[in-house]
Amino acid sequence: MLSRSANLCRTTYSAKLRQCLWSVSARPAILALAQQPRSQYSSGSKDPEKTPSEPKKTLVLPKSYAETVRRLLKRFLPQYQSLAIGKVVYEACSSYPEFKEFWVDDCQLPDTFQTWFSTTSLYVWMAMVRIRADPNAKYYSQGLVDCFFRDAEQKMRSSGIKSSRIVNDTLKDLVSSFKGTVMSLDEGFARSDAVLAAAIWRNLVPVDENVIQVDRIAQYVRHQLQRLDKCTIDDLTTGGFTFERIE
Question: What is the widest separation between alpha-carbon atoms in the chain?
Fold first, then answer.
C-alpha cells in the first residue's frame, strides 16, 4: 500500500515537471509569434506576389445594332404600358368631386349606379378625345376603357350581386350604352354646341326641367376639351392633368 502511494506521487511529480519544462522551452517561440505583425495572418491580406486579375470585358453592341433593337422594341412598348397608362388616366376621370353636389342635387339625378356610369362615361370620353391624337391611341384608349369597366364590375359585385351571369349580362348592356354615348358625343363635338347639348340631354340628364344644367354641362365640356388640347400626352398619361369643377 505504501509502495503504490509512492509510485503515484512520483508519476504526478514527473507530469508536473514535464509541463514546466515544456512551458519554459516553448515560451521564446510564443513570444516571437506574438511580436509578428497581425496583418500577416489577416484574412483580407493580399499576396504581394499575386498579380491583379484583369477587369471583365463588357459586351457592347455596335451603335447600328442597338438602334435597330431599340426601334423594334419601341413598337411593342405601348401594348405593355396600355393598362398602366389607362389606370392613371382613369383615376383622373373617376375622381371628379362634384358628383353628389352637382349631378345628384343640382341636376336632380338619382344617386344610383346608372347615374355614376353615365357621368363617368362623359369624363372617359373627354380623355379619349385627347388620346386619339396620339399614334398609340389604340392601346391607350383600350387600357382606359378596360379600367372603366373593371371598376364598374367591382361596384356591381360590391353592391351585393353575386351571380356572374347577371354581372356579365349587365356589362354587355353597359358596353352598348357606352358605345352609343361616345357616338352621340362625338357627333356633337364635331358639329355644334346644340348637337352636343342634345347628346348630353339624351345620355346624361334626361330631365326636362334641367335645360339650364344641360347648357352648363355643354360649356364645361367645351372648356375641358380646350384644356386637354393644350395638355401634352405625357402630362395626361402620367397623372399631370385633372378635370376642373363644374361652375
Answer: 133
